[in-house]
Write a structure and sequence with these properties.
Order of helices and strands of chain A: HEHHEHHEHEEEHEHEEHEHEEHH
Oligomer: homodimer
Strand content of chain A: 15-25%
């Protein structure tokens, strides 16, 4: 799957991923109204609204981008009905041949991590048959529990040709509380990055490992260091746009081959029509605003990469 | 909810929690056969099997214990159908007035953590109405992302009178890879424990905070230290039984009031009938074996606490 991700980035010339993190407040009124008219102001109605919203966005942007990253929390908040919308979204993105990164940030130990891995990336055995659960292509995972928590995910990835992005340095303001603590003069995130590089070294695609890392766009200095600590790991970079990251900050997350990183924007794309810059599209044409925002993001990052050459 | 947990521990004289972590391989053949006859060897069939298995165990042990801890990964591996079984299990435990600790180990930032908190502990607003998602009483959360990740959970807990158990020192063999790293001569888990105590200090029930911690039974020395670092935090202690922890190891997880900790056993209770000690019950009477295992666990821990007085 890492090879497919790299190939699609080369074809689209877009090292970006769109975060499908729908808040109900992002969904334009006409879509909410229609969903509530059909299902009422219920969990089902909300799930229908975010699914229709996602679908229209995907229909407008799928040809521009290699990958999407649905954030499962935004669906999980609506319980079972929300998770059905998550599953529909994953399946629909696969129909459009998009790589799907499940932003699930799961992490546990042993058989429990194995169960998460099976549910999100693998197949569960039931008697003589086997089934996929949510069937994403990559999943984000949390490293706090150590190798026991990560290895069951890696095993499933190896078998299913899937991949991981392991949290190393997250984009939020308080990420330093634990991640920046100094151990023999070096921050914890560097140790985690080294471990990601080690986990990844035995699990390579053609040019990159399928065990990648998450490093926030909001910490470009740290990104520069971590790029070197994990030369063969793809870096998933959240925090672009709404969280404050800009293309020019991100050039050091990439290797000299112009690859090695994929930059996420969520709200900045899916709720573009709510920004002043794209307000002209209006709520009815929200998905066209998203397409424009994707094109602008690609230009910003491409411009920064060209300028850095 | 922390007051209810404390009250129920006092009434049952059982500072224990039973982990409802059903693997399909634990479910006795007669239950699997019946479920598969009705639904086929499908995700639905597997979900029905684990639900019936859970229900029979709960029916046999609910009066002995204060709380249960369903591990969501074991349900999530069966996709939507598995999560329906999770929800049914939570609801059924509430019918039996059990405190439900959702072992979900979620953790993200800002609005994403808020969405998880709403989905598991709170209510989601849809138009003029609001709904619960999975509606557990406590949730386990991962601290790697720092305060930004934890505070949205705390806010929901405060509003809904729910609670958290934050991972501090986990029970698995490799938990030390990051958690034991020394920062100015003290391990990371101590800093996390201090932070838990701080988060908890502003969020108190009558005698304990509703912001608790997870400290594995397999690290009794660390447990002893962490008990002092977090005097007002309830400690959820996994790793008893199948993972190697014994009652005598656990006395220092408790305060002098005999409270402050709740010890989890999962496989050791729910799959007791598979152990030599309880094999006499047989698969047909698996839930009676679970009841016996609960009684033995209570006696072990109570004996250890009495001996330590």
């Amino acid at each position: 799957m890492i090879n497919k991700l790299v190939a699609k980035i080369k074809i689209t010339k877009a090292p970006i991923v769109v975060g499908l993190d729908p808040m109900l407040s992002y969904v334009p009124e006409h879509i909410q109204k229609k969903a509530f008219a059909e299902y009422g102001e219920t969990l089902e109605g909300a799930a229908e609204a975010i699914w229709q919203y996602n679908k229209e966005i995907i229909d407008h942007i799928w040809d521009l981008i290699p990958a999407v990253k649905p954030q499962i929390a935004m669906y999980e908040q609506f319980g079972i009905e929300g998770l059905k919308a998550f599953q529909k979204t994953v399946d629909y993105c696969h129909e459009k041949d998009l790589v799907v990164i499940g932003d699930v940030k799961r992490g546990d130990i042993g058989s429990t991590s194995a169960a998460y891995a099976v549910g999100h990336l693998g197949r569960v055995q039931i008697g003589s048959k086997s089934y996929t659960g949510f069937n994403e292509d990559f999943a984000t995972v949390n490293p706090y529990l150590g190798s026991d928590g990560i290895k069951p995910f890696i095993d499933v990835c190896k078998e299913e040709k899937k991949g991981l992005f392991i949290l190393v340095k997250t984009s939020n303001p308080s990420s330093g509380e634990f991640q920046d603590r100094l151990i023999d003069g070096r921050p914890l995130y560097e140790y985690v990055g080294e471990q990601v590089a080690e986990w990844g070294s035995g699990h390579m695609g053609d040019s990159y490992s399928y065990i990648g890392a998450v490093v926030g766009a909001t910490y470009p200095e740290e990104g520069k260091i971590l790029r070197k600590v994990m030369p063969k790991s793809f870096i998933l970079v959240p925090g672009y746009g709404a969280q404050g990251g800009k293309g020019a900050d991100l050039v050091h997350y990439f290797n000299e081959d112009g690859l090695g990183a994929i930059v996420n924007s969520s709200r900045g794309i899916i709720a573009a029509y709510k920004q002043e810059q794209y307000a002209g599209f209006g709520g009815e044409h929200f998905a066209e605003a998203s397409r424009q925002a994707v094109e602008d993001m690609i230009a910003d990052i491409d411009g920064a990469l060209q300028a850095a050459k």
